[in-house]
Amino acid sequence: MDKAIITVVGKDQVGIIGRVCTFLADRKVNILDISQTIVQGYFNMMMIVDISALDIPFGQLADELDVLGRDTIGVEIRCQKEEIFNSMHRI
Predict the structure, then answer these.
(1) Is 4 exposed, middle or buried (0-12, 13-18, 19+ CB in 10 A)?
(2) For 54, phi and psi rounded to 5 degrees?
(3) What stretch of H or E contains 88?
(4) What are the pLDDT digits (tens) for 8-51?
(5) Most buried residue, 11, 24, 36, 80, by most Cβ within 10 Å?
(6) Nearest to residue 47, comparing CAs of 70, 69, 71?
């Protein structure tokens, strides 16, 4: 299984999860685990996703998520392959 980590951070508003999940489903990305919280009006979500059936190049997915977050929703969305994420966060 090929996994990626997606993080979403920004001011809370209606529809963030719905827009991100719809975007991922349209590209055949399966959500394996999701955690979200709101702290004093700020939304924070982390997703572990399966990108094995992804129908576009991974770099394009990451770029499109960045644009979706910045230009459409008004949040910051980052997407990294699991092995890169783990390497960056190893103690």
Answers:
(1) buried
(2) -50, 130
(3) helix 82-88
(4) 999 999 999 999 999 999 999 999 999 999 999 999 999 999 99
(5) 24
(6) 69
> 12: which 2 tokens?
């809370």
Task: Report how far residue 20's alpha carbon sits from residue 77's, in angstroms, rounded to the nearest whole number.
Answer: 9
Give CA separation, 57 vs 43, 75, 76, in Å.
28, 23, 20
Contact (Cβ atoms closer than 8 angstroms) between residue 69 and residue 9: no
- Structure token pair of residue 29: 């990305």
Closest CA to 7 of 78, 64, 81, 89: 78
Q: 78 vs 61, 64, 66, 83, CA distance in Å?
A: 10, 10, 6, 15
Q: 35 is written with which tokens?
A: 């955690």
C-alpha dihedral sign at 41, 63, 78, 49: positive
